Prior knowledge:
By secondary structure, the chain is α+β, with helices and mostly antiparallel strands. The chain folds into four domains: 3-108; 116-213, no CATH class; 217-306, no CATH class; 311-405, Immunoglobulin-like (Sandwich). It has eight helices and 18 strands. The chain has helices at 3-14, 21-37, 64-110, 124-135, 142-152, 157-167, 222-227, 229-237; strands at 43-47, 53-58, 175-180, 186-191, 200-205, 212-213, 241-244, 255-257, 263-273, 280-290, 296-306, 311-316, 322-327, 334-338, 347-355, 366-373, 377-387, 398-405. The strands form five sheets. Strands 7, 8, 9, 10 and 11 form a five-stranded antiparallel beta sheet that branches. It has a four-stranded antiparallel beta sheet with strand order 3-4-5-6, covered by helices on one side. Strand 1 and strand 2 form a beta hairpin. Helix 2 (21-37) packs antiparallel against helix 3, helix 4 runs antiparallel to helix 5 (142-152) and helix 5 (142-152) packs antiparallel against helix 6. The longest helix has 47 residues, at 64-110.
Amino acid sequence: MNVSRRILxxxxxxxxxxxxxSLYESAQRFRLAIMGAHRASFxxxxxxxxxxxxxxxxxxxxxxxxxxSRARLIRRFAAVLLAFGALDAxxxxxRSQQTTxxxxxxxxxxxxxxxxxxxxxxxxxxxxxxRSECSRTDPSQYGQCFLKGMQExxxxxNAVAFARTLQNSKEGMGYMQDFTEGGHVAVAQxxxxxxxxxxxxxxxxxxxxxxxxxxxxxLLPMGDVRLDIVFREIRRTYARVSVFGESRSEASPPxxxxxxxxxxFLVNYALRDGCRDCKRLxxxxxxxxxxxxxxxxxxxxxxxxxxxxxxxxxxxxVEKDFHFHLVADHAAGYHWELASPIDERFVSPAGTTYSAAxxxxxxxxxxxxxxxxxxxxxxxxxxxxxxxxxxxxxxxRRFFFVVTIR
Length: 406
């Protein structure tokens, strides 16, 4: 049996499996196009991974022998593509099925009906005593030691059961210190003693799946964050900017009402310069959405904001000029200038004036920058405060406006 037949038999077997259509069908269309194209005179054909078949013009001066030989080679190449496409699709389907089974298994392990009966309010002395006792045990027994300490210090059976469920899950050892109902899905405010700083966390419980840790960053659509205009602007200056969870000191995130008993939880995150304790550069907000029956729909980005020292949002009307007033001291040699060219599809400069500082009243010097809106849209206007002869200002003397023109 030659190679082509072996490949085609392999394709026939694999294609009987559930497959992802894009690669497999594109390869199949390529093969069919080649078989039709070489009948009379050979046409150059190219397979496009996006699924398109591009057929070129007739090639002049090709002999029948070269045509037939080249057609055979391309038919074999198409068969190879078909085989790899089917194998890739079958593997993807297998991974998808494995992921679904894994998620389903994990959800069944974690799912329990949670209520305020699982709340535990230990005093500082009780927590200190438990931590002291358990710090002397084998690290692998820390969870069991903590559960025993909870029981001995007045935690209810429900509170201990909830803590044990967390211990046996990917969340790890923790106890519930507050509970907020808001519909089918509720919020458990949980303290994890083993986590850095024993920070409180929010778990969305009683839904499908349950619980969902809002600080599991793998759930967040980071691609949408990286495309956001504010995030991209912050990253121009701080290349290491990343999203980090917060300490969830409030009992619950804001809950936004939706139709048909659906729920939406709005959760804020910190944008920091590369590490949890590094400089805060802004915030990002995400929505965790659930159907009315508690089924988890997914997470979506709601917005990105910068800290006031980085920049500010500037909503303006397309119908009239707008102004930026920037504090400056020309007497000390400082002035503002554009840090990069503006996008004149949306705005154009309309003049700059300067009002000197008044030492008697303490009024600082101010530069008044005027711009004319030209079209609706969103753009960035970047400034830097420089001294005479200075080519570029350090980042602490840079500022930007996110201008939304309506």
